From TrEMBL:
It comes from Sphingomonas psychrotolerans. GO terms for molecular function: metal ion binding; metalloendopeptidase activity. It holds the Pfam family Peptidase_M48. InterPro entries: Peptidase_M48. Keywords: Hydrolase, Metal-binding, Metalloprotease, Protease, Zinc. Belongs to the peptidase M48 family. This is Hydrolase. Binds 1 zinc ion per subunit. Residues 111-262 form the Peptidase M48 domain. Its cofactor is Zn(2+). GO terms for biological process: proteolysis.
Length: 416
């Protein structure tokens, strides 16, 4: 243990770097390497809804686990030492200062031939592993960016009493079971995507500009020795205009990462909305994360309360139907959903079908009120851009004729 520690160098930052002032085009702007909102929402959810799992997550990081990591690295990689690679260590020292890390560090070269780098996390120690010829392919600024990216992973997992590391550990453990829920998988996927964006920001801060960070992404993707980050940003803008949300399992697509980094660096006020569109996409009942489940449950209750206001004197049968879903429905003041929250831009077709089905359930609860409820359903469907979904469901599920369903839509339009 002591022999191994003697091979490390401790890098000490000279300033507090979590608030970094950079100069771009003569304008001084503050850039903070803070976690993204989604990352914090995962932590908050796990603490609130999964307290036992959260408590379990605090058990990680034993001395035995750390020893196993060190031994594995020594067996399977080449340890890089400062005497033979001074420029690599100098880049690491500078990047650590700029992203705000003070810890012993050890660098390794793996035998894998594909270009990449990774952090092997040990609390209180930095272990960076390089793959393929990546150290030979990068210029000095790009090497700083590469170091900054991997060090940002370490910084994130060390923040806030290691809450981000604990959240990742809980989800990884959940996914190790064959019966892991789709919501766990989607939460883990989105958390990983946001983590990579955080690390990309660390890369830009370490390099002093987003260009080198983007160049590293493209070089890893292509294996080229020379790339033009500005040209790739133009390419990314073209792709973005034609693409849907990210389909990445652990990393967003490179063009999304490049665009997200540039928007953050520029301080674009629309960044949060951009992330929602390109990482999350419209709310989909078929791909809900843990927070999405809670959100849709709340929206369902508020939607039903809003829908009830469209029905003149709803009978006891309808109230009974709603209390089968929410036992205390109507026993307190209910929030009424703003239908703009489930407009065309914010939910997908599967979720629109879900809200149509909710209205059908209410309509079927009281045979004497079916016509009146269906009229309210048609009016509501028109407001959320779901008229075609409604008429399709009427013909498919309730066997209405086209004439009858079209008549309902016409009546609703007149009523509005």
């Amino acid at each position: 243990m002591l022999r191994y520690l003697n091979q490390r160098i401790v890098f000490v930052p000279t300033h507090q770097p979590l608030r970094v002032f950079m100069t771009t085009d003569g304008n001084e702007r503050q850039r903070a390497l803070d976690p993204l909102a989604y990352q914090q929402s995962v932590i908050d959810h796990l603490k609130r809804e999964e307290p036992h799992a959260w408590e379990w997550s605090s058990s990680a990081g034993s001395d035995r686990e750390a020893d196993e990591v060190r031994d594995s690295m020594l067996r399977d990689t080449y340890r890089i030492e400062q005497t033979g690679h001074p420029q690599v260590f100098e880049a690491c020292r500078t990047a650590m200062t700029r992203v705000g890390i003070e810890a012993p560090v050890t660098l390794y070269q793996a035998t894998d031939g594909s270009m990449n780098a990774s952090l092997v996390y040990v609390p209180g120690e930095v272990h960076l592993v390089f793959f393929g010829p990546i150290l030979e392919k990068l210029n000095p600024a790009e090497l700083l960016a590469l170091m900054g990216h991997e060090l940002a992973h370490y910084l994130l997992w060390s923040m806030a009493e290691r809450d981000h590391y604990r959240a990742s550990r809980v989800l990884d453990h959940a996914l190790s079971y064959s019966d892991a829920k789709p919501s766990h998988r989607e939460t883990a996927r989105l958390l990983s995507l946001h983590t990579e964006l955080f690390a990309d920001r660390g890369a830009a801060l370490a390099a002093g500009a987003p260009g080198p960070a983007i160049a590293v992404l493209v070089k890893v993707m292509t294996g080229l020795s020379n790339v033009d980050p500005d040209a790739y940003l133009r390419q990314a803008a073209e792709i973005e205009a034609k693409s849907d949300k990210s389909q990445g399992l652990s990393h967003p697509e490179i063009y999304l990462r490049a665009r997200a980094l540039q928007l953050w660096w520029d301080g674009d006020p629309g960044l949060d909305a951009w992330l929602r569109k390109h990482l999350h996409g419209p709310l989909s009942i078929e791909a809900l994360d843990l927070m999405g489940q809670s959100k849709l449950t709340q929206m369902t209750r508020a939607f039903l309360a809003r829908f009830l206001t469209e029905i003149e004197e709803p009978g006891a049968e309808i109230v009974t139907q709603l209390r089968a879903v929410f036992a205390d429905f109507g026993r307190q003041e209910e929030r009424l959903l703003d239908l703009a929250e489930i407009g065309v831009e914010w939910i997908d077709d599967a979720t629109r079908d879900y809200f149509v089905a909710l209205m059908f359930d209410v309509a079927m609860a009281d045979p004497d009120a079916t016509d009146a409820v269906m009229l309210a359903a048609a009016k509501t469907a028109a407001e959320i851009g779901a008229t075609e979904r409604l008429t399709g469901a009427l013909r498919r599920d309730l066997k209405w004729t086209k004439t009858r369903s079209d008549r309902l839509v016409t009546q609703a339009a007149k009523a509005v």
